[in-house]
Write a structure and sequence with these properties.
Largest sheet: 7 strands, mixed
Shape: globular
Bound molecules: ligand MTE
Number of helices: 7
Oligomer: single chain
Strand content: 15-25%
Amino acid sequence: MQSKREEITPEGLYFSRRKFLKLAGLVGVSAALAACGIKPTPTPEAVPLSTLQTVSSNSLMNGDTLTPYDTITNYNNFYEFSLSKEDVAEKAQNFVSHPWTISVEGLVERPMQISIDELLQQYPLEERIYRMRCVEGWSMVIPWAGFPVYKLLKDVKVKDTARFVRFATQYNHDLFPNQGSFGFAWPYTEGLRLDEANHDLTILAVGLYNKVLPAQDGAPIRLVVPWKYGFKSVKSISKIELVEEQPQTFWNEAVFNEYGFYANVNPNVPHPRWSQESERRLGEAERRPTELFNGYTEVAPLYEGMDLTVDF
Ligand code: MTE
């Protein structure tokens, strides 16, 4: 991403077998054991996937069709595994995303340490069909399963002094072989202004196409902010921190004049090395015009009075 715009080659995509965790099943088992006062035993080996239950769904936006599952899961940016989009799925196939704990800390009244199983029990999943626009100029339409970040933030009681939310991928070289390489400031971190994080469109996703999130898409839990370029949507999160100052972010630290903090999709603000006026929807032959805020114009009030052309 940092050195050149890559060609998009949806042709020749392949589907490789991966191990998934049967999260829904594990939740049931842990809950039953806990009710009997028995401490759950360590997680058994990963077992084949069952479906995730979602309680509601939004609809496709005008002119959109869902990007096929195989495309979404075989064309990925996940530098912890590979710099090439085409082999992330293969390189991540043995990734172990269970057990997994997320901590919510910093400027909060009630810091939280929660396992992914408990999280799934606590927050009902919604299907959110969102456009995903990468800063490189390609896009997809993905049916995520997740829940709004504001629900989690409400439960930890954010202090008045907090103004930003910082999200970080777990730092663990055994899990993520490329961490520590290429001169990047690992772990991958991203940030949002508190009001952006509290917007109903901002979700933590744990699945797609009603299936548990595959490793290459950010298992077991990732951020999704559909009106921003995809690099804001940090994968495999283990820490969420409420802070006062605007946090440093992975790509901004790497190339400060190319990847801004806000990174709102905007056809009128070119990347320093290419135009953002149009995009290539994976699976479509013709490029299509890029829309301001990726079409999610309801977020415009968040930026009232801000000069949207300045983000570097
Ligand atoms: N999160 C982590 N931890 N590591 C990454 O390399 N890449 C980002 C983002 N989140 C990345 C990440 C980029 S550049 C994009 S475009 C999206 O993930 C890609 O998400 P996808 O592979 O599910 O399409």
